[in-house]
Specification:
Blueprint (H helix, E strand, L loop, with lengths): L4 H10 L7 E4 L2 H11 L2 E5 L12 E4 L2 H12 L2 E2 L2 E2 L3 E5 L5 E10 L4 E7 L6 H7 L5 E4 L8 H10 L7 H20 L2 E12 L2 E4 L3 E4 L17 H7 L3 E4 L4 E5 L2 H13 L6 E4 L6 H12 L6 E8 L4 H11 L7 E7 L2 H8 L4 E4 L2 H14 L2
Parallel strand pairs: 14-16, 16-17, 17-18
Antiparallel strand pairs: 1-6, 2-3, 2-6, 4-5, 7-8, 7-10, 8-9, 10-11, 10-12, 13-15
């Protein structure tokens, strides 16, 4: 479960991690009033997706009039298909230096991993590609927790002769507090990007938290209706992750889904999503999956790759047939396993491309996607 930035910052504030003063609003007039109170402000769209800044969903306003106009513009936006209904308006803290701090789970090492980088404000994935040596990593024993020397070592790695000793100690303290948040709230990710050095001190200018769904029973969070494709898939017992490509993917099993995405990339295509039907998918789930994936307007072609074990291929085929009249994008389908022949016979008269292997399906869907671009 992902938290909005304002929710994550409220948790940070309760745990004495310094954040700029601000409020959640839903109309431009409130942004104007806050700017009168706080001075220069930052206005941020609150949506469950990254890339807000590049999409124009973040603005700096130096006076109340600018705050009103920026809030009015952003509230009317849609960022990657998600409408902006709420804004976080907070005092502007000019960063002299931006850094990265994040904690996640390293599943191979079976323990929390703290990562820091002297460069912040950009995607950590991009830093990992271009400057991997800039990222300092430290594994934390989950039984003992983070030690003072570990926090100090991480903080000192950010110094680079630009932070004084007091500020390094402040960062070490924030690292320890963020780790406490990570543990107490059952996080799979707790991230500050950027962690900023300002004239007033060290501040978390952004906040990101992802809570382990399996631990929600002991956390006091209520999921808010967002209307996102991820939410729609979850309600139907499926897993969905949006990507930036144009080829829709519907697969049963996370491993097969990842392999299918890799093959699409290998053949020169760009996946638009990851969607795992999960084992035992029925015709109703298949119909919902097609509706969810095809609702992405960037879709040029869709691949359905099903290996029938608990999932019955004939039931999948029936679900496809029922919803085909609604689908505009061409379909490439690979069925294998339980009731495979029955499913193939049912789809013979439909306007779909049948494939006998994952590789053939991936190649065909990329070709169709390119022909429709």
């Amino acid at each position: 479960m992902k938290l909005y930035e304002y929710d994550a910052k409220e948790i940070f504030k309760r745990n004495n991690i310094p954040v700029p003063e601000g409020s959640l609003i839903s109309n431009p007039g409130d942004a104007e009033n806050l700017a009168r109170k706080l001075g220069p402000v930052v206005i941020k769209a609150q949506v469950m997706i990254g890339g807000r800044g590049k999409a124009g969903g973040i603005a700096i306003a130096s006076n109340p009039q600018e705050a009103y106009q920026s809030a009015k513009r952003i509230l009317g936006m849609s960022i990657k298909g998600l409408p902006v209904n709420k804004l976080l308006v907070e005092e502007y803290k000019k960063p002299d230096k931006e850094m990265y701090l994040g904690i996640t789970i390293d599943r191979a090492a079976k323990c929390p991993l703290v990562m820091v980088c002297p460069e912040g404000g950009i995607d950590i994935e991009e830093i990992a590609k271009t400057s991997p040596r800039e990222i300092v990593k430290m594994y934390i024993n989950p039984l003992t927790g983070i030690h003072d020397y570990q926090a100090r070592t991480l903080a000192n790695s950010l110094n680079a002769n630009s932070l004084n000793k007091n500020k390094s100690l402040m960062i070490a303290d924030i690292i320890k507090k963020l780790y406490r948040v990570f543990i107490d709230y059952d996080c799979t990710l707790a991230e500050i990007n950027p962690l900023a050095d300002t004239q007033e001190g060290i501040f978390a200018l952004d906040a990101k938290m992802v809570i382990d769904d399996n631990a929600l029973f002991r956390q006091d969070f209520r999921e808010e209706e967002t209307g996102s494709l991820e939410e729609m898939a979850k309600k139907n017992g499926m897993s969905y992750v949006g990507l930036d490509g144009y080829i829709g993917c519907i697969v049963n099993g996370a491993g097969l889904a990842m392999a299918t995405l890799d093959m699409i990339k290998q053949y020169g295509g760009e996946p638009a999503n990851f969607l795992d039907l999960r084992a035992g998918a029925n015709e109703e789930q298949m119909k919902n999956a097609l509706r969810i994936v095809s609702s992405n307007k960037k879709i040029k072609a869709i691949i359905i790759n099903v290996f029938g074990g608990l999932t019955k291929c004939d039931k999948v085929a029936r679900g496809i047939i029922d919803v085909i009249p609604e689908i505009k994008a061409p379909l490439v389908i690979r069925l294998a396993g339980t009731n495979e022949n029955e499913g193939r016979v049912m789809l013979e008269k439909c306007r779909v491309t049948m494939a006998s292997s994952s590789e053939e399906a991936a190649s065909a869907v990329v070709e169709l996607g390119h022909s429709d671009k």
